[in-house]
Amino acid sequence: MKNISHNPKIKNLDQESVEKLAIKQTARRFRQRYKRPSQFSVIKNQKISQYNIVVQLSTGDVLLFNSVTRAMSKLTVEEYKSYLLFLDGGTEKYEDYSDISLIAGLSQDGFLVDENIDELELVKNQYFYARKNPEVMTLTIAPTMACNLACGYCFQGQDKDTKKITADIPDHIMGLIDHGSERLKRLSVTWYGGEPLMAKNEIFKLSDRMISYCDKGQIDFSAMIVTNGYFLTAEVASQLYSRRCHAAQVTIDGLQETHDAMRPMLSGRGSFDVIMSNLAEVLEQTPLAISLRVNVGRQNVQECHELLIDLANRKFTEKGNFSVYFAPIDAATVESGTAFDTGLSKLEFSAALADLSEKSRALGLTGEATPPAGILGMCVAAQDNGYVINHLGDVHKCWDTAHDSEKRVGHISDVAALTESDHGRLWQAWTPFDNEVCRSCKILPMCGGHCPHRFVFHGEGDEHALPCPDWKWNTAEYLFSRAKSKGVVVASEWLPEQATCLAEQSGVRHNQHSMQAARNHVFEETGLDVQKFINRSASEDIDQQISIVDVTHANTPRPNQLDVS
What we know:
By secondary structure, the protein is an alpha/beta fold. Helices cover 36% and strands 13% of the residues.
């Protein structure tokens, strides 16, 4: 067995990002609960973990990955045969195994667990521990919903509020932080919009207040910003960095002509040249990390390879901390405009993503495909202590609703009432453990349901707006890529039929039927009328799409009944 995660000659796969420290701490808690024996003890009464994922190789060997511990190993043909014995007899037949050290190693890394352990219950406990953790507060603050661009697929639509944050809102934000400060140890802030840098002075002032408060209370403060990059000069980047905003997400959707068509200025002029010039300047002159997002749809999917070559030629990675990632254009809201027509299906996007990610890694623009932070990196919408606050002081749970006052959970001036509103109750009621697809998913410990918004407001976007993350669609591709980057496998060992879209190593994926059932369950839990929450501005087609279905036990889709096409 070649243990990719713990071989001292191979760098631990989970040391590649800051998030991995939290992941390893979680894995350690799981190991303590598993009470695994040492490799020198007699191994009995164990079973194969339900969170193991197997990727077959052309040689007959396999890659074995566990989504709880994030351990990955390569098993030879003979070692895999020993592993498969557990499917029949478990470790009561330990005397049949010629290589006890192999079995001990599998146990140590979580591939085998105590037969009395309820793994789903352990995942659930860890999930709610993270969800209700009072030591961490996550705030997304939109100081304005105005924007200087007119992207056709914008979740806000084109009718944006142009006002900036009012003078009293920062006071109320500080009150919210103080309200939860008794056990608070870490405050994480994301600046959002609209285009947040259209209110940069407000960002600077509020940052200073939060930093001063946190320093006095010995609370760790960190921030990042989501910006279109047009106003992100080196001077602005320096100001942000000095206020502990150490990372920026910037979007470029293709080469100049394509980008300017997809993300034009309000005036109709292009934005590509200014943004690229800013990025070069920021990377050369400041330590601000740039994560370049490329939104992929029918309009630009064929051009993305050329964009990657262009980015590599600009030598951004040599200038500073720069990386690229890809996201789908999908219609998460009814206002999402061209996204309804230009978005790729999940299957189409996943195929494109696997190809683009490989190309990006080869050019040095993207790191290894590391497992998602999952439960420890859960979406702000799922966190009890996570809020999205817009310029009006409306409090939301999700970025995608920040523009829509009808979906707010309350107002920042009344912190105590945030969980008492109808929408607040909906967010509180949702969990990934209330639907069979998530419960049976092999990457649940890494995913945690991924996108609560897709469940709570299912039907207000299009059919492409499903919650399962990229790892669910490209599990085998990501694992093989990581193993290849470590020299554990070579390209010829890949089996095309192991493509996750075909093999579904992680389990059945969500579709429209399972999403409707999950959404209706949330409304049943709260006793609220789903009809009240249907967006009346949606088209008749969308209203029909979210019509209530009978979700009795008999009619709820089983995993093997779901249409995953």
